[in-house]
Amino acid sequence: MLLIQCPYCGVEAEETEFAPGGEAHILRPGPDCTDAEWSAYLFERKNPRAVHHERWRHAFGCGKWFHMARHTHTLEVFGVYRADEAEPPQEIRDRIDARAAL
Amino acid sequence: MTRLLSGGALIDRKTKLSFTFDGKEYRGVKGDTLASALLANGVRLVNRSYKYHRPRGVVTSGPEEPNALVNLGKGDRHEPNIRMTQIELFDGLEATSQNRFPTLKADVGVMNAAASKLYPAGFYYKTFIHPRPAWKHLFEPVIRRIAGLGRAPTEADPDTYEHQYAFCDVLVAGGGPAGLLAARRAGEAGERVMLVEQTERLGGRLLVDDDAEIDGRLAREWIDEQVAALEAMENVTVRLRTCASAAFDHGYTLLYERRADHKAPTGPRHRLWRVRAGRIVGATGMIERPIPFDGNDYPGVMLASAVRDYVRLYGVAPGARTVVYTTNDDGYRTALALHAAECEVAAILDSRPDPAGMLVERAREAGLRILPATGIGTVKGGLDGVRSIRTVRLDGTGETRFIESIDCDCVAMAGGWSPVVHLYSHSGGKVRWDADAAMYRPDPDHPPRNGTGEAYTIMIGGASGALTLADVLASAAGEGAAPSVHAASEHPAAPVWFTPSEGKAAYGGKHFLDYQNDVTVADIRLAAREGFESVEHAKRYTTLGMATDQGKLSNINGHAILAEALGKAMADVGTTTFRPPYTPISMGSIAGQEKGLLFKPVRQTALHDWHAAHGAEFEPVGDWRRPYRYQQGTEKRGASITREIGRVRKAVGLLDASTLGKITVKGPDAGAFLDRMYTNMMSTLKPGRCRYGLMCNDNGFLMDDGVVVRLDADTFLCHTTSGGSDRVHAWFEEWLQTEWFDLKVHTANVTEQWGQIAVAGPKARALIEALDGDVDVSAGALPFMGWTEGTLAGCPVRIFRISFSGELSFEIATPTGYALSLWEALMAAGADMGVGPYGTEALHVLRAEKGFIVIGDETDGTVTPHDVGLSWAVSKKKDDFIGKRAMMRSDLTRKGRKQLVGLLTDDPDYVLPDGAHALSADGRRAIGHVTSTYYSPTLKRSIAMALIEDGASKMGETLTVGIDRKTTVRARIASPVFYDKEGARQNV
After folding, report:
1. Could you tell me the fold of the domain covering B1-157?
2. B847-882+895-974 in CATH: which number?
3. How high is the ipTM of this complex?
4. Which residues are bridge partners to B69 per DSSP?
5. Domains of chain A (ranges, CATH numbers)
6. What are the pLDDT digits (tens) for B753-782?
7. How far off is chain B from A92, nearest CA to CA, in Å?
8. What are B587-607's pLDDT values in tens digits?
9. Smallest Cβ distance to A2: which of B249, B734, B890?
10. Beta-sheet strands, E only, within B321-427
11. Yes or no, beta carbons of A75 and B886 under 8 Å apart
């Protein structure tokens, strides 16, 4: 069971206090998009065996959505960041790069 | 009796205990396990094997026991499949054997063994295939009765169980010498330490092999010193009878504590500890391996370490004349322990050609007969167990040659040691085959890692592969100096994975690997021949390691046999996954306190007690309990519902609508936000007005509906379905926080802040006007789909003129604390008008008469607003809303989609079954299904709603509905609005 820290309220708690929300940074296309674009938005997910940027919600805490960079196999957490950030902050990317370089 | 005259470090001979096994009374002493007490009474046959029903006895002295499983207790405290070797004896214990009929000694299942050539690996897969129905009705019931373990209890468990949480810097699993030293060092360094030990005492194998000296002290003195030091430290907690069962991600560890179990008269029986440890130190020791030879399963064939345990810890002689078959020096300790206890050692068979070393020398000096390069080819035995063995020459060629027969009644197998790496492996650590030591060791290069990528589990002592006491303590000492050890040095082992009976092969014999699932060497070889070459496939094909002992004794030997059969190296064959829990844990401990009323909290409205006092029969709606109907006297359900419907249609009824979800949406962008959330336009709604709204997901499918109220320019109140309030509120927040965080909007789920009462029926207005208040509910002042606020019967209220029954209807919301007083005022004021409550079933019939949909009845997650005739509620003017793009997909616009219609059966008294399928003209295909179906007392006939392919264009047609294999019913397609099609009744 993961230990997760909420970037808003600062609480570090068990995974069961949070709810997962799938892959992060998926752009929702407008109603003029093609069927293929819409289908990709609805159904296509990366599901990597690697670092995964994903959405979580502090469901049984402050209720806020946030982003987390987590390796899906080693379960290492490289950091959490705000839900309104369109990409992971540099410091988290540095941490991921440093691990990959090992 | 085979209790020795002296010895037995753990027993108190003066305290006698009586117990029964299979109804017969026996005596044991304090400190015994059920296994040691039965052995002391000369009882060796304790079970029948799973498949062949062969006689079986105790093999081990610990948690790895595969054979000696019993039913413990009776009645509501009956518990099956408990390992005798772990049952601490207490006075009055009652146990019965398993898997035998009618008795252990005369078990009819034994004919399976006579026919064992007919039952090779995969037998069930290959045989019981045809005819298909026979599996369910004939084969499976019979096989289940013959095979299997204990019977599941049939009564509710009267004991209590609990979950506990704990945090520590270091969790030390295992209280042997390594665990004691590691815990002490960590404690002295100031860390918060939890030391857990699955048995009821600390010391581990040092209690048995107590001739070693540590730091110049005798082993026992050293243990006492460590225990005293640990007890003196406040930052160290020691918990006995507590097994580290499982390790999960990020250091989350489960401990299973047998707290009461005949020890404590009150309090929870078992505890499941959920521990977050900074580090885990696995000092879980080793398990000895058996040796596969013909007949290695007769009662009396035991692990050498277990034989030594029974002699030295319990003062019990497992046999009068023992043969030790060893692959290493440690086996000699057992021979020496037997000799010291004046039990006869018939011979020591050593797989090695030239046994030497200090322990071997001691055995020679004691005059014991040592047979180098010799193994056991066959054990001869019967129901009473081992009678003799046939020794064979091991010359390294894989072929064996008979030497002699030796009479004996006990065989001690010393097949080498396997580190208990489970905790390491559970949480992602890798194990590595060490060919020299013939064991899987934890691989320090691939440890379990926590959330920050740091290794947090180390294995020490035997669990790390340390075989001698000096190595064990050195591995536990950490940075500090290791204690000095004076103990016998040992020479390398020569593992024997398999001893043929005679010659090269195993023809005719039974060389058991997995005792509990009756898997033999021949089975694994068959699996390899038939192409099950992956260790995971071979496991599943043969069931090796799949019993309740999870292959603790059998897996390594089985994998070695597979490697040999495939001509591969052990490391290339690999090992199967170690899965938690380490040993079975009670179901009660998993449930903890979360049962009965605590299983899931129930939500109750402010009016719940009133309902209960007035005959309400409740039904679950989401987490709520709502009155289904109110029973008067002894009337039947149908009578209550008919009465309640008539009241609403003819007079006035009250419905507790408090469970409806209520979400406040506030802010300058609230209108714009709701335009995106609902399919309709909400921003154009005027303050003072209400609008029925639909919500879809981005697949274009309906997910919720309800009335949206504009409270003021910046504030909306969104009603949701009773079950949907939390989901819809979370849905709003998800979009606001993750997609449209530029919108200035706040939401609040105020469902429980408001009680809500629907007042419905022709006399609804008269009833409200009969109450004191300052609200004008006249048709002119409060038109349909309007709302107002004020005071009614002393309660602050909002009154929404909305209708789910088709009647003149007002929903009155008041703060929850006022709800009961308002309800009672309405009941009192309406006494002369025939007022009364109505339940959810009446509500459903009333709305079905009007053709109103219910989310979850008419919708199932694949239904669009267009499908249910609600196209009018889907805006064409908005740039975007959730579901807009999806509704343009070809599948959602194609012909042939199912559409909502009404169904009127030819026989007006026949009510269609819910979910019944409508059939195509040729009767071969389902073209839709019934979504709601009732008898309408208003219309005096049955009515149903259904989703039918192209239903909207089939009005007036008659179709066939399949009821069962033989029966069909004819029904006419009609409008789903059965009553008051013009809506005149609600508009007065």
Report:
1. Ubiquitin-like (UB roll) (3.10.20)
2. 2.40.30.110
3. 0.97
4. B83
5. 3-26+46-101 (3.30.2270.10)
6. 999 999 999 999 999 999 999 999 999 999
7. 12
8. 999 999 999 889 999 999 999
9. B249
10. 321-326, 344-350, 370-372, 374-382, 385-394, 400-407, 410-414, 417-419
11. no
